[in-house]
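Example 9 (inverse folding). The structure is encoded as follows.
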């Protein structure tokens, strides 16, 4: 059982996600989703495009998480 929660530091969540803890990555995406969506929407001007861009961003982050260097 995971002892991680929404207040856990990013580093702890990343470490847990790297061990296969899907909940840890979900906490990270929840933490940054709103800010990324606002940024993407301000740049792209269309909500649907912004949502797609953020989704692709999280997919890439998950795919390349093992290369993260704090």
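The amino acid assigned to each position is listed next.
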């Amino acid at each position: 059982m995971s002892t991680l929660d929404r207040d856990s530091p990013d580093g702890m969540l990343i470490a847990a996600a790297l061990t296969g803890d899907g909940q840890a990555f979900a906490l990270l995406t929840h933490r940054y989703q709103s800010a990324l969506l606002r940024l993407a929407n301000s740049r792209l001007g269309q909500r649907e495009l912004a949502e797609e861009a953020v989704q692709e961003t999280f997919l890439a982050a998950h795919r390349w998480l093992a290369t993260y260097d704090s």
